[in-house]
Amino acid sequence: MRKIYILVFMASNLVIGAQTINYPQRVANYDATFTDGGGNFDDGTENFGMWANSASKQSVAFRNFTETGVPGGTATTMAVGDSFTITVSATQASYGVIGLALLSSPSATASWADRINNYAVQVNLNGNGGNNDPWEVVSTAGTINTSSIGGSTSYADFVFKFTLNTATTMNVSINNDTEVFDVTLNNSNITGYSIYISDDWNGVDNSNIFWKPTTEYVYATSDTEIPVITYLGNDPVSIEVGETYADAGATASDNVDGDITTSIVVVNPVNTATVGEYTVTYNVSDAAGNAAVPVTRTVNVVDTTVPVITLEGDVVVTIEVDTIYTDASATATDNYDGDITTSISVVNPVNTATVGQYTVTYNVNDAAGNAALQVTRAVNVVDTTVPVITLEGDAVVTIEVNEIYTDDGATALDNYDGDITTSIVVVNPVNTAIVGEYTVTYNVSDAAGNAAVQVTRTVIVEDSSLSSIDGDNETLKVIMYPNPTASKWTIESSRVINNLTLFNLLGQKVLEQTAYKMKVTIDASDLKTGIYMLNINNTTMKRVIKK
User: Fold this and answer.
1) CA 306 – CA 323 distance, rounded (Å)
2) What is the pLDDT of residues 286-337, one digit of tens each?
3) Is 410 in the same domain as 349?
4) Are 194 and 318 in a shared domain?
5) What are φ and ψ of residue 140, in 5° steps?
6) Which residues face 251 on adjacent strands?
7) How many angstroms separate the CA atoms of 181 and 186, rounded?
8) Which residue segment(s) compose the domain that 518 sits in?
9) Which of 26, 215, 275, 438 is packed most tightly, with the most Cβ within 10 A?
């Protein structure tokens, strides 16, 4: 009777996000032990063949679990939660044994017994001469858990999944949980697996036993995928110096642990009292210790607030031309730099020598380059000083009737316009044909419209030839000087002056004096300025002026 056993290794990844290792099925990936008449072959594909024939022959191939699934890599030991899934495709074992085992620390050169007996748990078809023998799960001290799932006389797939529940117990699932056994392990520290056949020879050669790809080992506790951090809000962020910075935070998710936002470690060095660029970092690790790629947010603490300039003194200043202008200046404060008065740039075009309106400007920038709103001061250089008129000649002039009167004129000077004599307006009403007192006026204004104090000159037109005849028919000749006077008149006569009487223009007597002299002096210092009539010896009237 010919017995052919074909083993097919397949995988299932049942732990989301867990690390899965494949164990490829080429000859070079295994250590194998064969008795005489047993061996292996490689058909050039992923198939790994084993055969045993003649008499009681045994074939076994095994490999250790490694971190990468590659022989010679770092060995690994099955941990709680790990699972190993393998599919065996085989025919019924009428004689001998087909099986697989999870091993604890096998040696590379050990015997067949080491391969199958140093087991934590094994499953097999144990041929006893009957058909459709069931699969057996062998665990603690050889305890046999008989499955209801029997073998097959034709090729059939049998899926076994081994999941380590605890350090000493394992869940064995057959055909995707068609039947499940919870068993106690024969030993711990599972480090590899083996596939084996034995032939209790019945006189028929056995060959062409195949293993096909692939096994899969799922590390439930070997989460190597890093979490992902996602920042909330914007990057970069700008915030005004002095304000409160409220970080928008971040979220973190992990393929295994899910939402791990609360585990984020935030390093936030932002100091809103100091302008600068700050980096907020977000770090997190999942339960397996996988660290996420740090996420950063740039926070720029900036100064965009403009300084404030405050004028000292008046906004509008008026100053007389040709005087000294001293600017009252200004102060400047900044929200960040503080007092920056010394940084103010002043443009002062004021020229006090020239009448006009000038604008003094004040500008300042803070250290961040923020320009303050320009402040200005209006400075008006004005001419408010009136010109001065100066008479040429006497202020009171006496001329003889019918003489020609030539006015001596006047000059005018202005503090700004200088000599403005030519601008003087003269009003001259003098009529020398008529005895009387006339007032000549002089007025002038400068270019600014400032009018000078009016100046006047008194011109007296008189007839000095007045005379009278006394009782002896002798002509009385009188000379009077100075006239006008501010203090005294002197009167000289050709005859003795007996009395003098002085009248104002209202005819009121204001002074009376006896003399009995030919030369008499009248004190006029107490008299009011004006024109008077002097009566001499009650015969002669003379006009006199007190200035």
Assistant:
1) 36
2) 877 889 999 999 999 999 999 999 999 999 999 999 999 999 999 999 999 9
3) no
4) no
5) -55, 120
6) 230
7) 14
8) 468-546
9) 215
